[in-house]
Please model this.
Amino acid sequence: MSSTGDTPLETAAPTRARLVDVARVAGVSKALASRILNGEQLPIRPETRNRVVVAARGLDYRPHAAARSLKRGETGALSLLIPTLTNPVFALISRGAVERALERDVAVLLIEDSAPARASELVSRLVQGGRIDGAMLASVQPEHPLPRTLERLRIPHVFVHRTVPGSNRNVSMADQKASALAVDYLAQLGHRSIAHIAGPRLLTTTQRLVEGFSARAAELGLRHVVVGDDFSEPGGAKAAGELFDLRVPPTAIYTGSLTQAVGALHVAFERGLRVPDDFSLIASGELPLANYLNPPLTSISLPLAELGAAAVDALVGQIAGDEPRDVVVETHPEVIVRSSTAPPQDPTGADPPAGRARPVPVAVEWHGLIE
Amino acid sequence: MSSTGDTPLETAAPTRARLVDVARVAGVSKALASRILNGEQLPIRPETRNRVVVAARGLDYRPHAAARSLKRGETGALSLLIPTLTNPVFALISRGAVERALERDVAVLLIEDSAPARASELVSRLVQGGRIDGAMLASVQPEHPLPRTLERLRIPHVFVHRTVPGSNRNVSMADQKASALAVDYLAQLGHRSIAHIAGPRLLTTTQRLVEGFSARAAELGLRHVVVGDDFSEPGGAKAAGELFDLRVPPTAIYTGSLTQAVGALHVAFERGLRVPDDFSLIASGELPLANYLNPPLTSISLPLAELGAAAVDALVGQIAGDEPRDVVVETHPEVIVRSSTAPPQDPTGADPPAGRARPVPVAVEWHGLIE
DNA sequence: CGTTTCCAGTTAACCGGTTTAGCTCTTATA
DNA sequence: TATAAGAGCTAAACCGGTTAACTGGAAACG
Model:
């Protein structure tokens, strides 16, 4: 298996060029070749430098990752832990992270967090095995064991999208702005009574979305309500069902994820409700699928890929020695208008003729001003 | 940064255990420790072996990936090239591959094939940089430059899901069976006139799906037609539109992917056609989303995760020295019955009163027996 | 004129494993 | 009784880079 030098057999094994080869061709020591190729600022004759660079290019030389890693004590690889690949939100974050990492010549190991204990063990193994320099975590729920482990091992890490308050390691975006924009858009269409289907309350993403929603709705004097506690399709379906059961349902629903919107559309269909005739629907997070739902879904675009890219940048910074600090990605949310939103059909629905909307049949309470 | 031995400062940097540490604790040389921990069959006193094993466990020792890689000339890492992460088909294949790889203590680098030239360059870089031992390719179209590059560099590789005939490196499944099952199911419901919305004709997956469809339809004496050339939502929408434009549209449509089915549902909705009243719809490939479409989509389950796992197995085999050979994953397709399929509404629709169905308004021709 | 400084490099140690060659001691064999 | 054959281990080279320490000569400096 040792392809050192010549292989006298008929199959000329194409062997990688090593640093020594470059050095020999350029007529210098491998030490010098190494330092030149790494762009060190050194007193060196330009002509010598050139010989080395040309030799490296000519031989298509690439430093052996393992050798470099061994000496430097760095691997040039990161892990990215996500809840599931089949959720397009995380697919997009992953895309952004992998792209940026490749630009920076860093490798990314993607891992699905099927079970917290297992994920912790896997990441620890990668760390202990010297396979990664740092970890990006997009799936930590508050009691997840991994952050503590990483803290103890002093492994650089960041939290992406799902953040940990006070950690100084959060890479997030101003989700509030997306919610506020959604509320603005619905209000502008004439809706006076709106609902938000939210995710798990423990997640900071959820909290930001809810906060943005409630704050702006209150500001505009809209009646508003928040339901739901799961970003999935069934979560959206269940929450939507609760809303439709209200004595006075909202005329518009804003979901925290596209998957929830799919669930909401599903129950609407089952109950014979029509969108946007019976209620308007708008979701946070734009995906190609939105255009092919029935009806095509109005949504708020969010820079998920940029979020992944920013996570890589922050983590690479930490590895280089920077102190961990929170990063908030610039958000310029936009409404992608499709066919699931329209002015409310029955203007009185937002303000029922019989005055006050209470009592409410399920454990859901309206907030906001009753004019 | 050198944490060699003791760090006298207050921050006790938790340093990885190395092989020497294990050897010292066990009172043996590191050579022996290495061979024991690698499970070599050697003349060794059981007690000595035990001391080493216990020491390794006690120190939570894990061999440093880079050091091992450097000496062995293997990285213990593979790449997986997929068209896009946001397509759940490839998300599932990736899931299966990553899971199996982690079981085998191998790392997987996931790469999206945004542009063939760029992907080729990236994978080459990984190979040349000694970052991966082999590549899994799930996105090669016939003129993709990567296979040639890998062949030239003598890098082990396999083709997953999208195969290359004659390469002996294909990891695929018997998609034909899924198509045949779909046809059987539709026939059993009473449909006599069915259509298949296919993917790009150059892909072998498409060819297998089409073959299974046409063969079984002919066998059962059904009128059948194949349209479409793209697995995406717009591709499904366009093809469905062509079918609806037929003078005698089919009473059932079988799509090669769930995304195409989404597209088909979309145009049906736009044209006011109802599923399954106006036509039945069944898709190849089961995904959670299917349950939340309107109506919930009947689909054929396929072992996509197993396919990814099998790809890892095959590739690891090649790296260990096996000759490349095609692998066909066991398929036991099942119909997941939901609400998008039903007996045809108008039994005469399958066999129009006016006799022959031609002429056909678009470039689509019916095949099969006219009774 | 002797010494220091700078230029333009080279030598060799080292990272943490794996692996080949070899060494010592006991036991079986001729 | 000499010797070959294991059993049971150790020493050291090696993988391919990086980097601290060093060298020989020319120029600058006091």
Q: What stands out?
A: Chain B is about 40% helix and 15% strand. The first strand of chain B starts at residue 77 and ends at 82. Chain B touches chain A through 59 residues (CB under 8 Å). The two ends of chain B are 83 Å apart (CA to CA).
